[in-house]
Amino acid sequence: MKIIVTGGAGFIGSATVWRLNELGHEDILIVDRMDETDKWKNLAPLRFADYADADDFLDDLHEFRDAEAIIHLGACSSTTERDSDHMFRNNFEYSKYLAEFAVANDIRFIYASSAATYGDGSAGMQDGTDGLDSLRPLNVYGYSKQLFDQWAARHGLFDKIVGLKYFNVFGPNEDHKGDMRSLVNKAFGQIRETGKLKLFKSHNAAYKDGEFGRDFVYVKDAVAMTLFFLENDNGGLFNVGSGRMNSWNSLADAIFKALGHERSVEFVEMPEHLRDRYQYHTQADLTSIRNAGFTAPATELEPAVADYIQNYLIPEKHLGDGA
């Protein structure tokens, strides 16, 4: 296979394969674990050469020395996961193995880091390796990603490989993610069922209810930034986001507008286990990726939400279904 996409049946992974198909690439190996999910529905409209189970793939890795690129998006992405051993095996050790193989065989290696590495943002959200050791993630998912970023930096790999710190990605093909789905996806079901949307109250005196928020980036934009590095030989650790912070209130407004409903929001207590590890403000600094040559503007929140809801959620379509 020319291109290997780990996590290729998942959210960002299947969206990446979709875009590769649009660009004319079909010689793709998808690596994933299907588990007891409906991720297979993401694959059904896509074109690829083969599929491999993630564990079997490591055993057969020597067969892929001629690959042109490994886009490593496979990981345990649950920010509430408490099993540290599971996180370290999947997000750290597996990534090390693939990175070493890719570098040894001159294969382009692009991998998913995460904005979760920035923790509460008090150490800034500047990408690259300067200040990397000062970051303090708020959960074991973020720490497992941080651990690999640090390992790659210590071994001087960022002149050869690319790490992408994805912010809050939303869009088609995330249905299987359960509690880790975006608010847009969750809200779609809530509003259809109850006519209203529940949002967490603020437990930070600096923010009013609904006025804290995130850098919400549409998956189509995240994929465009990812695949930019297939044609661009820059190495480094880059933020992937919209470059904007939108509040939960703004997101709610966009959702209700896309659905054609009057706004109806109820603020509810944030679960106690989240309160001390909750990000109140994230915003990607895109200076590095802009300097690397990526110039396309990110889709504004309202049209991105409208595209997702009206062209995918309402008609129950996946990327590649003709939407």
Describe, in plain words, how this protein is organized in 3D.
By secondary structure, the chain is of the alpha/beta class. The chain has a domain at 3-168 and 217-242 and 283-298: NAD(P)-binding Rossmann-like Domain (Rossmann fold, 3-Layer(aba) Sandwich), CATH 3.40.50. It is 37% helix and 16% strand. The chain has helices at 11-22, 40-43, 54-59, 84-104, 140-154, 183-194, 219-231, 248-259, 272-275, 287-292, 301-313; strands at residues 3-6, 28-32, 50-53, 69-72, 108-114, 162-166, 168-170, 197-200, 213-214, 216-218, 236-240, 246-247, 265-268. The strands form four sheets. A seven-stranded parallel sheet has the order 3-2-1-4-5-6-11, with helices on both faces. Helix 5 links the parallel strand 5 (108-114) and strand 6 (162-166). The chain is globular. The protein starts with a strand and ends in a 10-residue tail after the last helix. The mean pLDDT is 94.
